[in-house]
Amino acid sequence: NDVFSDIRLLVSSDAAFESAILPALKQYNKEQFTVVDHPTERGKKVLITPVSVLDAEGEEGDGAEERHVDWRGGEAKSFAFDHMKATAFDLAPLPSHQTYDSETLSLLSSLDKLLVGYTENHYSDGVCAVYPLRDANYPDPDPEAADEDKTEEVKEVGQAEAGELAQDLPAEETEGAETAAETAEAASSVLHEGVEEGEPMKVGTPAAAEAALEGEPAQEEEVQGPEEKKERPPRASRVFGLYLVGNKYNPSNYWTGRWRSTYVLDYAKGTLEGTAKINIHYYEQGNVQLSTTLHSSSPLPPSPTAEQIIFALKSSESTFSTSLSTTYSQLSDESFRGLRRALPKTRSKIDWSKAGGYRLGLELGGGGAAAA
C-alpha cells in the first residue's frame, strides 16, 4: 500500500494511473491469494484467486470491479471485488446454470470443513477455500439438446394421436383419403411442417380433430414452442481446487513472509497434485529474499473420503516444511559461506597497518630485493 500511494503521488492524472496499474493489480491479487473481508459477515474472510472469478461467458470486465464466488456455507454466492480499493461488496446468489449439483456441493462442503480446521491449526492468520473445477468427464448440459428432445417427443405423440384418430373415422368422411393410413400420413405431415417452421403447434383433442376433418370449426389449444433462451441445469464435477494462504507481517523487525498452497484433487484419477510457493523478505540494513516452489503428488485410495484427502494434504505440507528446514540449516554452512570473501592461508585478516612485518609486505616494499 505504501508503494501504491507513493507511485500515485508521482503521476499527475489519477485516471491515467488507474488505467495503467489496473491489469497489474488484477494479476497480483489473484496470484497472491489476496485475503479480503466478507461483504456481509463480520470476521469472515474470503480469498481472491484465479479460479474464484465468476465465469461470465469467458469474458472479464475491463473495469476495476470483478465478480468472484464464495462456495462456503452451503449456498454459493458471488460478490463484487474492487481491485483498486481491495474491498468486497454486493453479495448475490448464483444463477442455477453457474452452480453445481447437490452431490458436487456435498463433496465440496466436506472438504472445506476439514480444510478450515487444518488451516486454523497450522497457519497463523491462514485462510482457505475449496472450488469446484471444470471436469472433462462432466460436460456442461446443453439446453438446446434438451429442447430438441422435447420437440421430438411432442412430434411423436402428435403423429400417434393423428394415426389413431384416422383409423377410427369412417371411410366416407375422409373426403379424398382412400385409406385411414393416408389420412394419418397427411396429419403427420402437417404436424411435422408446423414444428419445423417454429410456429406454435396446434394440438387438439380427438373430438376437435374429428370435427376439423368434417369441416366443422373446433376450438384449438395452442402449445407454445421452446423459448429462445433456456436456463441450463446445474453442472457436475469431481475435480476440486484446494487453496490456502498464510501471511506473516513483522515490520518492526523488518521481515514478512507468505505461504501459498494449491492442490488439485481429481477423484477419477485418484490423485492430489500440490504446489507450495513460499516468499520471505528480510530487509534490515539490506535486502534478502527467499522465493521457492515445492511440488508434490499424492496417490489416493479408490473413492477416498474427505478425511483421507486432507490427511494426504497434511503429509504433503509436512514434506514441504521439512524441505524448508533442511534448506535453512544449510544456509550458514553452504550458501552464505559461498558469498563471503575467502580468508588467506593463515585464516586471519591481514592488518595492513603492519604489512611491513609480513614477507609479502617486505617484498612489496623492496626488502626482498635488498636481502638478495
From TrEMBL:
Q: Where is this region: Disordered?
A: 134-190, 207-234
Q: Which UniProt keywords apply?
A: Actin capping, Actin-binding
Signal peptide range equals: none
Gene Ontology cellular component list: actin cortical patch; F-actin capping protein complex
Entry superkingdom:
Eukaryota
Low complexity: bias regions: 177-187, 207-216
Residue stretches of biased makeup (Acidic residues) = 141-151
Q: One GO molecular-function annotation for this sequence?
A: actin filament binding
Q: What is this protein called?
A: SPOSA6832_04333-mRNA-1:cds
Question: What organism is this sequence from?
Answer: Sporidiobolus salmonicolor
